[in-house]
Amino acid sequence: MKVLVTGGAGYIGSIMVQMLLNNDHEVVIVDRTKNSTVEANKRAKFYQQDILDMAKLEEILKTEQPNAVIHFAGLISMEESTRKPELYFKVNTFGSLSLITAMLNAGINNLIFSSSAGVYGNTDVVPIVESGVKKPTNPYGESKLLVEQMLLWFWRTKNLSSLSLRYYNLAGASSDGSLGETHEPETHIIPLALQAAQEGAEFKLFGDDYPTTDGTCVRDYIHVVDLCQAHLMALSSLINDPRHDAYNVGTGRGWSNRQVVDTVKKITQKELLVKIEVRRPGDAAELVADSTKIKQALGWKPQHSDLAEIVQSAWEYAGKQ
Ligand SMILES: NC(=O)c1ccc[n+]([C@@H]2O[C@H](COP(=O)([O-])OP(=O)(O)OC[C@H]3O[C@@H](n4cnc5c(N)ncnc54)[C@H](O)[C@@H]3O)[C@@H](O)[C@H]2O)c1
């Protein structure tokens, strides 16, 4: 099938593009950035385009006529979103509305949306089920929740078929080790801890007074290859059974920040100088998925998401940079 991938020059998007191409799909990338990962996936057609330009998106969609769109393009820092909420609502929420409108005008009806565990915020019930309370603790999570709510209405009123995948914490590199996580600036714990270990630099751990077993935040880590596999399965499921739904994509196992630090030390065989800082604004205490729904609906299950395997994969990638 032909798939248009927004944000296909980014971390997850570029690995998704590689996986789609390896599975004989035709791929069109729309991203405002052209970088080396686009070059690495040169079998895909590339449009350097901001998703906020609805008319241009419509033109591209009418020309390309993809069977489906996977929408990764967006801003990703929960912390930054607490300082620049207007930017997050603009790019993540208006940008998605721009894409959805362009899709409707071009008659493209299938969308997989990159949502986030950030839609839930702090919750008393862990692991978190999809129908659980949603009270985001930062504008980033809210910007994603608003898109999910719009998607429900576009299904009800316009038959736009969509699946929102609520990712937990992503890390790791592509199966061939050629593509991995390089955000600028990096805000994610695994690449930051690996970088600190590599450089012998101080690693900042934000908050050790959370209501968790060791006081540090607890997250559910998922290998990017498992996540992309979930997208492949979601795509074919959506095409065969048009609907609107949302699935958690996590493992159901939580790891505290201290456990991540210990795993990084073990894998790298290096010392890590940990400095405890105050809590970062917008961080929820514990985000762990109940992923029963996606397992039942798509038959998906994580194959590479043990924390040690994820850290090993990210470490090998970091060594090549
Ligand atoms: N990385 C994670 O742990 C994580 C967790 C949950 C959800 N997500 C979601 O997954 C998606 C991809 O995340 P990522 O880690 O690959 O991020 P990334 O920053 O590596 O990639 C995002 C891509 O989107 C592009 N982009 C941003 N704004 C754009 C715009 N206005 N027009 C066109 N392109 C634009 C960027 O150029 C970049 O290539 C995001 O929507 C993010 O919110 C990521």
Automatic annotation (TrEMBL):
Gene3D superfamilies per UniProt: NAD(P)-binding Rossmann-like Domain, UDP-galactose 4-epimerase, domain 1
Taxonomic source organism: Candidatus Roizmanbacteria bacterium CG22_combo_CG10-13_8_21_14_all_38_20
Taxonomic lineage from the root: Bacteria, Candidatus Roizmaniibacteriota
Single GO MF descriptor: UDP-glucose 4-epimerase activity
InterPro entries per UniProt: Epimerase_deHydtase (IPR001509), NAD(P)-bd_dom_sf (IPR036291), UDP_G4E (IPR005886)
Protein name: UDP-glucose 4-epimerase
GO biological process: galactose catabolic process via UDP-galactose, Leloir pathway
Domain of life: Bacteria
Pfam hit, one: Epimerase
Coiled-coil residue windows: none
Pathway recorded for this protein: Carbohydrate metabolism; galactose metabolism
